[in-house]
Protein: Translationally-controlled tumor protein-like
Amino acid sequence: MASHLVKSAENKSCKRPREMENETSVNSQLSSLEKPDFVFSENAVPSFYKAEVLEKVLNDMSKEINLLLTKYAQILSERAAVDASYIEEFDAIFKEASTLENLLKQKRESLRNHIEAPLRLHRAHTELRAPAAVVPPLPPSTAMIIYRDLISHGPEGEGTHATVITGVDIVINHHLQETSFTKESYKKYIKVYMKSIKGRLEEQKPNRVKSFMTGATEQIKHILANFNNYQFFIGKNMNPDGMVALLDFHEDGVTPYVIFFKDGLEMEKC
Structure:
């Protein structure tokens, strides 16, 4: 990250006079920082803190998270991947694909350290002004996507701004599409889907068929009893033969989770 927060000053002949005057005062601020996890070189002067720097930090954070995860894909044609490291058993039939809230919380703290330290240096620099607002913390249980509007340029090629989109991370990252069911239409769908899964298990895991059908029957009763609590999502291709994921919220009413049929998923190695 440090490379994005400093400006090289190896060629001193290229410095403006005011930059040379303020270099000492800027470097003196380093001792007052609370151990930032990046290091400024001795002859470096912080560059203007632009939106592109924050965007790069968030992109790097997203890539790091994706490298930690093993993806799952559906058995039946639709490959709605979920994050294996964050899937918990759901009554031996379901796996709950929880959001990345805990990991994102750690990353937000790291990101805040990268943002606040250079901003303090900018305020100490007479030629540089810190932006009016720092990006707010990520909402819990959501993913944030920032992209630039490259059309709305000003007369001098400026005016680019960022747009923030929030939502359930699994839904956004895997392009799931919301659909709707009545209780009767869901009963028809789930009957066909269970038959398909049973047939697949009979071919590949015959010892699993009995326990699957017993457990699935109980879980479907639970779903139907709480039918109005769920939102329904399918893959971006909206394949009618694919699995339908169910979205619900924990007891706090704000933390979402998505449930899938365990036997309708297969591991995909990255």
User: Anything to note?
Assistant: Residues 101-124 form the longest helix (24 residues). DSSP finds seven helices and ten strands in the chain. The chain has two domains: 51-134, 143-153+166-264. The helical segments are 2-5, 17-28, 51-68, 101-124, 169-173, 183-204, 209-225.
